[in-house]
Design goal:
Blueprint (H helix, E strand, L loop, with lengths): L1 H14 L3 H16 L1 H9 L4 H12 L3 H14 L5 H5 L4 H11 L3 H9 L1
Helix pairs in contact: 1-2, 1-4, 2-3, 2-5, 4-5, 4-7, 5-8, 7-8
């Protein structure tokens, strides 16, 4: 059941044309990531597709709120149990470092730094 929810949220976060829908999908992932018992499942799902979607949204979504929430979701996901999987996800640390210094929105920069 969780798999279907994650698949839908990831798809909406990445391919939806409507900015508001992308923002809500990322918000859903952020809320799921807040609960510690969900974190490893989110990081592991589909060989890292949740992390990849959040990475993409953080680095390139046109909506400030979506970028901020995706960086926030990555912050929520970061914990002792998920650290290795996240650290070894291709391009994630580079994306967060780039967003923390270059994003035009200060809130996005701050969230990326926390992740």
């Amino acid at each position: 059941r969780m798999d279907k929810v994650l698949a839908t949220l990831v798809k909406l976060a990445v391919v939806e044309d409507k900015a508001e829908t992308r923002e809500y999908a990322v918000s859903g992932l952020q809320n799921l990531a807040f609960e510690k018992q969900n974190r490893m499942a989110l990081v592991s799902y589909g060989s890292g597709v949740v992390i990849e979607a959040l990475k993409k949204c953080t680095s390139s979504d046109s909506n400030d709120k979506t970028r901020r929430r995706s960086a926030g979701a990555l912050t929520n996901l970061a914990c002792d149990e998920t650290a290795e999987k996240m650290a070894t996800h291709k391009g994630l640390l580079q994306t967060l470092a780039q967003a923390s210094v270059s994003d035009k929105n200060k809130d996005v920069q701050q969230r990326a730094t926390l992740a």
